[in-house]
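4.2 Preliminary Data

To establish feasibility before requesting continued support, the project team ran the inverse folding procedure on a target of 343 residues. The structure was first converted into the token representation described in Section 3, and no sequence information of any kind was made available to the design step. The complete token record follows.
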């Protein structure tokens, strides 16, 4: 009997793991109430079906219905009830982790009438949303000047260079179909996703639900497309950028990263401080705080010449030349950039 139980548990586990289970964070829901258009009374037992899917529900005794696990997208909802005219609701938009409210009043049917078509109204204020959230659909992405998901997020209000509410990508929860994508070495978000495969991008800037953890500043949730059972489709995009500086922000005051006067290298090459150190008084306090602190090549040479290893003795100029040799690799400013997105 014990072996039989273990076998049944194993079969159940395989069935569950191989089934189509959609977790929170990947889907939304549709809910509302079905009423008689003439009397305003709720209808019990009305059938609600999401056209083109196997999702649906039946209204309860108070006319309420709820359809769970609806992937984000635009749908048609069909309401049918015996003795009433069949009603079709178009342009019902479902977003990640949100409830789309669709209340419907259907007409009694005394004779055979055609199906009634209603256009769903998009609410200006979402009562079920307590967070600062914005959704970008695949149709909107097509019209945006973006090449990747990072560009899509960066176009939203209050976000710059994947920085949400003052925090970088190491303080942001980045999810793909409910799975957290994070580099364990530095906690940075892994955002390399083919843009052609994206169905919707949801960005939350505050007021996160309790289901999310390890997040401080924001949540970026990406849901990918589902394949079409009746046809094949594909997308291919190729972008080319001419040769240009790779680490330059466009300001004439900010030097290229390989320039001796850049933020990284100036303390080691500026004659005012490179020999005696950044604390020698040549720089004022404001300038000193903008650059890394450096003891000076004189101090480096003294340390090398007074240790127990005679093979590493160097003069201050020799130490600087050795450092210059170590960083001799230049960035490839003469090479173009390519970006290919295919799906």
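Position-by-position output of the design step:
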């Amino acid at each position: 009997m014990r072996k039989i139980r273990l076998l049944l548990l194993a079969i159940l586990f395989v069935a569950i793991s191989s089934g189509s289970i959609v977790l929170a964070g990947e889907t939304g829901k549709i809910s509302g109430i079905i009423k008689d258009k003439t009397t305003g009374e709720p209808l019990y037992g009305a059938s609600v079906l999401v056209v083109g899917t196997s999702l649906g529900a039946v209204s309860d005794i108070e006319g309420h219905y709820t359809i769970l696990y609806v992937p984000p997208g635009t749908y048609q909802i069909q309401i049918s009830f015996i003795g009433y005219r069949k009603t079709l609701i178009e342009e019902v938009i479902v977003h990640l982790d949100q409830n789309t409210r669709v209340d419907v009043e259907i007409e009694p049917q005394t004779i055979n009438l055609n199906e009634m078509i209603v256009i769903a109204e998009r609410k200006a204020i979402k009562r079920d949303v307590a967070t600062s959230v914005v959704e970008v659909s695949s149709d909107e992405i097509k019209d945006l000047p973006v090449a990747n998901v990072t560009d899509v997020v960066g176009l939203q209000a209050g976000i710059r260079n994947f920085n949400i509410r003052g925090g970088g990508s190491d303080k942001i929860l980045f999810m793909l179909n409910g799975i957290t994508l994070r580099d364990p070495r530095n906690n940075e978000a892994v955002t390399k996703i083919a843009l052609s495969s994206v169905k919707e991008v949801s960005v939350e800037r505050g007021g996160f639900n309790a289901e999310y953890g390890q997040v401080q500043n924001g949540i970026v949730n990406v849901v990918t497309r589902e394949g079409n059972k009746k046809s094949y489709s594909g997308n291919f995009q190729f972008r080319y950028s001419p040769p240009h500086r790779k680490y330059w922000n466009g300001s004439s005051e900010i030097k290229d990263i390989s320039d001796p006067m850049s933020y990284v290298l100036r303390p080691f090459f500026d004659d005012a401080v490179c020999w005696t150190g950044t604390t020698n008084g040549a720089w004022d306090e404001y300038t000193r705080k903008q650059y890394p602190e450096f003891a000076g090549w004189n101090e480096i040479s003294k340390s090398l010449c007074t240790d127990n290893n005679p093979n590493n003795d160097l003069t201050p100029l020799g130490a600087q030349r050795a450092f210059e040799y170590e960083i001799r690799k230049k960035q490839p400013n003469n090479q173009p950039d390519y970006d290919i997105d295919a799906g």
